[in-house]
Amino acid sequence: MTEAPLPLKGVRILDFTWAMAGPQATRLLADFGAEVLRIESRARPDLARTSFGPHPHGVDTFGLDSSGYFNHFNRNKKSINLNMRHPEAATVFEDLLRKADVVIENYSAGVLNGWGWPFERMKSIKPDIIYVSMAGPGHRGPYSSYRTFGPTVQALSGLTHLSGVPEDEPAGWGFSYMDHTGGYMAAIAVLMALYQREQSGCGEHVDLSQVEAAITLTGTALLDYQVNGRPSRRVGNRSPHPAAAPHGVYRCQDEDGRDRWLSIACYAEDQWRSLVTAMGDPAWATGEEFSTVQARQAHEDELDARIEAWTRPQMAHELMRSLQRAGVPAGVVQNHLDLTTRDEQVKHRGLFPPVRHPKLGEYLTDGLPMKLAATPGGVRVAAPLFGEHTREVLHEVLGYSEEKIDGLMASEALA
Amino acid sequence: MTGALDGLRVIELADEQAEWAGKLLADMGADVVKVELPEGARTRSFGPFVADQPGPERSLHFWHYNTSKRSVTLNLDSSEGRALFLQLTAAADVLIETTVPGALDRLGLGYKALATANPRLVVASVTPWGQDGPYSGWASGDIIQMAMGGIINSCGYDDHDRPPVRPGQNHAYHLASHHAVIALLTALHARARLGYGQHIDVATHDCVAVCTEFAATYWFYTETFVQRQTGRHATPRPTARTQHATADGRWINYSQTQNEVAWQRFLAWADGFGVGDLFRQFGDAQERLERASEVMECARAVMATLPAEEIWQAGQRLGMPWGAVRRPEDWLDDPHAEARGFFQAVEHEGLDQPLRYPGPPYAFTGHPGVIRRAPHLGEHNATVYGALGYSADEIAGLHGRGAI
């Protein structure tokens, strides 16, 4: 059997990304076969190597190779050491640029300029280079010096404001959603820029602002504000639009009597009728106040209380299955034990493949959620050890002699 | 303005699950032809509406998710309609579709039939659970996906007697669309080298389930669960609050920094309010992390005396990574968004003012694209079917026979 081709084979990316948003972008590109060269220096090690957890064998056991989080977001990539502030780094970087298609970074604005590498200079070395920057506020504008993490981006953009119940403070997002999604959008930007380069031969700078990227996801609220003067608002687990009721997360239990939660949503009248049947046709459900979706929305507190009185003593997973058999949209609020052991669909699709790291050992990781029939890509190797590929890349890609590499090593340019 | 995807031809047969994917392509210059049933796409019935009056041309949801596309009507239950669909995809680079698994096959329009007519076609199928497997026939919805994929488990309040909460807007559909776009652009890149298109199977469930950050890493590496917390990351053990109320009844997100220069500037700023010494007791960055709850208690007291906008801007000028919990509409009059030209004004018939739409999520400096208003139902029947070679009379005939 011949191996399926990798769809992004031949694309070489110089990757200055760190923490998570940038690495999420290059992880996808690497999974599809792009050669992603992480450029790392001991002078400013990646927070994902040093800080973000967990470190399954302790924070320092394997030095900069201890982090599971880093392994999770950097598989399939290579790592080369290059200290961009070192005087001898410039010629090495120039040589890398000549062999590269894309430069990507998610530092605050000005970091590459500070190293002496504004886009114009990169372009003078490699005229069709594609440069994607991902600073929170972007590289232009009065806030361009501001610094953000995922939670800052979510707060500023409105995503936090829109999440939670209306009568209380925002619940926000319980993780850096915009580190994932900023990464997806940066991957899209790289691919769109490659498409354009194919047509015109031109590279360009893509000034991605993660805050702007997040605001685009709130567009319906922005239009409602402008057209109808309605301030954006939190709606808890409800769905004024599209009109659906019931639409919520209801308390059930597990085999040990602990709370579990089940989402149930009826978007169509036949789904509501199936739910009523599943509940045993209780008298309350046939009342006028629950006869249409508008009526149910007008009595949603009572509706939710009635439904939860019914769900509460039931087993969440069993109830999900019986409601789904009846055609009612229902899904358990799953945790990762559920996802990795109970979820038959995840198992069927092999979503969480194992990856063996030479120091940490073998662990599951997030696979690709999209299946390209002819060129599937996938998880091939673990994240690189710190500087693992310095020698290999300088020798094989740049054609440097071992003596030249030894000299650069001695000068600490490659550190 | 030219866009990065000028010249790309896309057919979209998609509902709310993947309209965002088509929009991302269309705003960057791709010609996205949205194929609607004669009565119109389902999302035309999604609120909010102009002046809260429903109608197929009044849905703000539809407007936002269908910018820059063209619209044709097409009846796939008619044999003439099916022949037209085959002609459309034969002349296209990409089809994005969200029909239930097997439905297009039953109409004779499955991937194999389409690829026979056009081997270079890339078909991205976006469905709740994937093309096959034990849940592939299950009912779905955005909240169902956000629950099943593990996101809702991380979101909500400190009080676990209250239910976890789905973050606002339809993010499962955003996630599926992002992965569809990444996949189809990747397939187009491969096509340039390999010469053929392919079928892509995007499962929304999987897209949500790989967007959980710490929930995944803590489970995979230590078999521990994260627990939801108000306004901050879910973590295995409770952590200090980072969301503080401000004097004007709003909220601010306070992230810690390990940057000593910024911290020293912050202390000087805090001195101006007579509270610098309150923070000096914490020593270095490591100690501030270890005593985060105490740092946050001090911060909370200071934040409560100032308005949110003033605090976050002042903090940022000191180098502190703070952010006000803004409303999306706060950006409409913001000088930073203005300077970047982020919002694009789009004219709509019947509205006094152009509407400002958020620009693409990535500012291309050479090929930025331009946003145009969403199409009216069937607005482009004449031009699209005309380009396939149908005369005005023939198009009228197709209409009369219920094919379009």
Question: Would you kindly provide a written description of the structure presented here, covering whatever features stand out?
Answer:
The complex is a heterodimer of chains A (415) and B (404). Chain A is an alpha/beta fold and 415 residues long. Chain A has helices at 21-31, 47-50, 68-74, 89-98, 111-114, 119-125, 150-157, 177-200, 210-215, 219-228, 269-278, 293-298, 300-311, 316-325, 336-342, 344-349, 390-396, 402-410, and strands spanning 12-15, 35-40, 78-81, 102-105, 130-133, 205-207, 247-253, 259-265, 330-332, 354-357, 361-364, 370-372. A six-stranded parallel β-sheet of chain A has the order 3-2-1-4-5-6, sandwiched between helices. In chain A, strands 7-8-9 form a three-stranded antiparallel β-sheet. In chain A, strand 1, helix 1 (21-31) and strand 2 (35-40) form a beta-alpha-beta unit. In chain A, helix 1 (21-31) packs across helix 8. Chain A starts with 11 loop residues before the first strand and ends in a 5-residue tail after the last helix. The mean pLDDT of chain A is 97. Chain B is α/β, with parallel strands linked by helices and 404 residues long. Chain B has helices at 19-27, 60-65, 79-90, 103-106, 111-117, 142-148, 171-194, 204-209, 214-222, 260-272, 276-280, 285-290, 292-303, 308-318, 335-340, 381-387, 392-400; strands at residues 9-13, 31-36, 70-73, 94-97, 122-127, 199-203, 227-229, 232-235, 243-245, 251-254, 322-324, 343-346, 355-358, 363-364. Chain B has 17 helices and 14 strands. Chain B is elongated and about 80 Å long. In chain B, strands 3-2-1-4-5-6 form a six-stranded parallel β-sheet, sandwiched between helices. Chain B has a three-stranded antiparallel β-sheet with strand order 9-10-11, with helices on one face. A two-stranded antiparallel ribbon of chain B has the order 7-8. Strand 12 (370-372) of chain A pairs antiparallel with strand 6 of chain B, so a sheet runs across the interface.
